[in-house]
Amino acid sequence: MGHANAGKVRGSSGRRAWACPARAARVLASVILACALTGASLLSSCSPSPSGQERSSDAASQTVTLTDCAGRTVEVPRPCKSIVAIGGTSLRLVSYLQAVDRVVGVEEAEHKDVVSCPYRHVNVKRFAQLPTVGEGGSKGVFPNEEALALLRPDVVIANVDRDTADTLQQRIGVPVVCIAVDEGVFTEGFSENVRTVGRAIDSEERAAEVVGYVNSIKEDLAKRIAGLPEPRPTAYVAGVNFRGGHGFDGTEAGFSPFDACGVTNIADEGALKPGPYTIDLEKVAAAQPSTVFVESGNLGLVRDDVKENRAYFQSIDAVAKGRVHTLIAYRFYMTNAEVAMANCYEVGRVVYPDRFADVDPMAKLDEISTFLLGAPIAADLEAAGYSFRQVDLLSDED
């Protein structure tokens, strides 16, 4: 066909030269990537960090040893000048510890502003300027080892399993510190994640402040509901996000705002374990919860359900009598602690108005987010349709 020898030509010296620039570029790229990985151990001792500082090779450098949340023993440098955080809530915890200025690379998902993910919304201008180290978000945690090896952060905070962390650490020549999967706020798992990240990035004092602040919120809620008679009020939460939006049947067992406020969650009965799931709607009607809460981001889906089966919703006393209130979804790449805690105050205000009369939950949200993230977020959330309010599901208006 006349193309058999088109891939190569002879130069003036008689030696073969590649005539296809694209193929040459691919060969060169493969060599560069191979060097980046196989040379990671060499880079560890002699390559400069993005800030131009030598990593752990000068006389002033020190290291400390810690045990991460996967039980791994990891040696991390002091001082810690550069950080990468990958996997759900890793970068959120770094943000809570006021260390965003030391982050040198982010997952691609962190480049997109999402108001319902407050740590990202507050810091998106910073994150958008940083190189990517993997996809992240709903696509999963797939670290870009080549990018990490070239960035050479002092430490990688990762929400990955033990084996993945060991492999990644070996390949990139950088200490990898694991956090645990914990969707709670007032849990020891949350506190230990904060402390572990604090030790890893040399921010232990700030970590203690965060844990202390969250515990003070927990104690305040406990004092407000102390001495309440039994049985406690019942409630149901609908429109809970998990693997996408859900309507009235999307709920959660072990719903933290109910637990923190001593409210009986009708979705707990019969649930195999804590967490979101799809409930049999007849169980909701049979339980007749005193109050219904709906995550405001999925209010439209719940209204669609009402249109399809109005008689069912009229049979639920709380819906028929207007005892329906919105909450703000607090899960986006795991738990937004500031939003979850504000939801607790809204649940308390609705169910125990006398005990929470002095609290404006949206103002409380700003107080909490300012402490954790350095900025108020309530107005931005409300402008995007996320708010606390009473709604009439049987009307045609939102």
UniProtKB/TrEMBL annotation:
Residue ranges annotated for the Fe/B12 periplasmic-binding domain, each copy included: 82-355
Listed InterPro entries: ABC_Transporter_SBP (IPR050902), ABC_transptr_periplasmic_BD (IPR002491)
Family stated for the protein in its record: Belongs to the bacterial solute-binding protein 8 family.
Name of this chain's protein: ABC transporter substrate-binding protein
Organism of derivation: Berryella wangjianweii
